[in-house]
Amino acid sequence: MKNMGSMMKQMQKMQKQMQEAQEQLKEKTVEATSGGGAVRIVASGDKRILEVEIDEDVVDPEDVEMLQDLILAATNEVMKKVDELVEQDMGKFTKGMNLPGMF
């Protein structure tokens, strides 16, 4: 029974550390660009888009589709970077555990 109590304390400690790491992720940001920097998107570690910057030179009313593609590319790239950041920060808690899709 003593081992069970010790294991519970370790789990509670790990849960607290995970919550703290998740809170810290909210403060971290990543950015991605497309079109050689024509579109820049910044996202937080909790997957919120914080900034979208579009160079006025790529705003062409005759070619809205290109601008849409640039925005999509930058958005997809920034989300990929957020996933990498989350894995880097939260992966230490799930290493060795078979918990697919937890984060």
Commentary on this structure:
The protein is of the alpha+beta class and about 100 residues long. It has a single domain, classed as Ybab, Chain: A (2-Layer Sandwich), CATH 3.30.1310.10. It contains two helices and three strands, in the order αβββα. A three-stranded antiparallel beta sheet has the order 1-2-3. Helix 1 runs antiparallel to helix 2 (about 65-95). It starts with a helix and ends in a 9-residue tail after the last helix. The mean pLDDT is about 90.
Helix content: 55-70%
CATH topology: Ybab, Chain: A
Distance from N terminus to C terminus (CA atoms, Å) equals: 32 Å
Largest sheet: 3 strands, antiparallel
CATH architecture: 2-Layer Sandwich
Radius of gyration: 20 Å
Order of helices and strands: HEEEH
Overall structural class, as computed from helix and strand content, comes to: alpha+beta
* Form type: rod-shaped
Low-confidence stretches: none
Keywords summarizing the entry:
rod-shaped, alpha+beta, Ybab, Chain: A, 3-stranded antiparallel sheet, 103 residues
Question: Briefly, what is this?
Answer:
This protein is of the alpha+beta class. The chain contains two helices and three strands. The chain has one domain (2-92): Nucleoid-associated protein YbaB-like domain (Ybab, Chain: A, 2-Layer Sandwich).
Write the layout of secondary structure elements.
Layout: H1 2-27, E1 29-34, E2 39-44, E3 49-54, H2 64-94
Antiparallel strand pairs: 1-2, 2-3
